[in-house]
Amino acid sequence: MTKRRLAASFLLAAGLLVLSAAAANARQAKTSGLPNTCSKPFGKGDYVIASDLPLQGSLRPLSVQIVQAIQLELKSMNYRIGNKTVQYVSCDDSTAAKGSWDPQTCTNNANSYKSVSNLLGVIGTFNSGCAEIIGPILNRAPGGGIAMVSPANTYVGLTKPSGVAGEPQKYFPSGKRNYARVAVPDNFQGAADAQFLKGKGIKSVYVLNDGEAYGSGIANNFVNAAKALGITVLGNDKWDAAQPNYQSLFQGIASKNPGAIFLGGIVSNNGGQLIKDKVSVLGDNSKVLLLGPDGFNVSSTPTDAGSAAEGMYVTIGGQDPNKLSNAAGAAFIKAFKKAYHVKELEAYTGYGAQAFLVLANAIQKNGNGSRGTIAKYLYNQSFPNGIIGSFKIDATGDPSLGGVTVDQITNGSITPLVVVLPPASLAVKALAT
């Protein structure tokens, strides 16, 4: 090779390196606006998908497995969705101080997401209260709402009228929807929980809620359904997560002689102490039945409450996470356990994978369209062999699923008992205001 050719080759190589560096810098610049609560990217790509979950506190075990489920599915796609290469970041919406989701962190995360031009969508949130904050912000993103798919939000008002003024329209200020979920809404879970208690011969129940959107929502749905079934509701009061104990609360309830206690809320709102004091004052769960919805269906419940959780019933809107009924679900469980060396899946692990697939399907259908048009493809999707079963996402963003699994905590583990499918008429009554 002549000196002139050699020099030209060096110049060409140097030019390509400069271009590569410039491209890399441009790509980094596109994602540099992500919240500081986010992990390093998983995989490599020109585009990014984020998840927004509580990675601190009692709900961490659930969130960690949802993150792993998303990683597993994206890796199986070789980091490609349609004609796009995609990387994934896991973002935290909780704080160590709260041990749960934090309103200011949810706000900060959402405002950061808006600025990342190559962010295709968000998997999340876990908590419905955080979704109430993030949803409207993403809905007003430049160029159109950023698609959002939740694996675990169950509060009815996020998608349908709940009796609360302005819902669900206030979560879509642009006038166009950008939100969907794969979790069963709380009117079905509340109805199933009431139906389960009726079947256990319970005639009276005292309800406690944590005051959050999810907690007060599921408590109200349960109360409506319980009354429709002839169960006497003795009260529906808020418990304060900041209180050191709840002895006096349960001493006041004891005089009413309830047959059961229903806890509307999440375990990370001092739920472990609440369970301990319920047992201390009212007796164990064979004397006064204790029932909690999916906010307590997490492995940290028996950890936080210790032996007081023994015999407690907990539910989840959907299937037993370790016995998903169809071929896709069984294959996912097998692959997840092999990849992460776990014996049991948390309640919403499969739903995390399914939420990612709903978003991925919308991205693929959008083709070369702008990010702002991805959201319209979230709706009216069909999944005849989805990880969580055969279902559709309707025009409001809800799944066509209504089954609720009742589990019981025995020997420190969460053991499935029965699937309850409440009649549609009872689910409608659960929505009554």
Structure description:
There is one protein chain. The protein is globular. The protein has 433 residues and is of the alpha/beta class. The chain has a seven-stranded mixed sheet with strand order 10-9-11-12-13-16-17. The chain has a six-stranded mixed sheet with strand order 2-3-1-6-7-8, sandwiched between helices. A hairpin with a 2-residue loop joins strand 16 and strand 17. It has twelve helices and 17 strands. The N terminus is likely disordered.
State the helix count.
12
Specify the overall morphology. Answer: globular
Q: Kindly provide the radius of gyration, computed on alpha-carbon positions and rounded to a whole number of angstroms.
A: 23 Å
> What is the averaged pLDDT score?
92
Distance between the termini: 84 Å
The percent range for helix content is 25-40%
What is the structure about, briefly put?
By secondary structure, the protein is of the alpha/beta class. The protein is built from 12 helices and 17 strands. The strands form 4 sheets. A 7-stranded mixed sheet has the order 10-9-11-12-13-16-17.
Task: Give the helix/strand layout.
Blueprint lengths: L2 H29 L15 E7 L6 H17 L3 E2 L2 E9 L1 E2 L4 E2 L1 H12 L4 E6 L3 H12 L7 E4 L28 E3 L4 H14 L4 E6 L3 H16 L3 E7 L8 H8 L5 E5 L6 H12 L6 E4 L7 H6 L7 E4 L10 H14 L8 H18 L15 E5 L2 E4 L11 E7 L2 E8 L3 H6 L4
Parallel strand pairs: 1-3, 1-6, 6-7, 7-8, 9-10, 9-11, 11-12, 12-13
Antiparallel strand pairs: 2-3, 4-5, 13-16, 14-15, 16-17
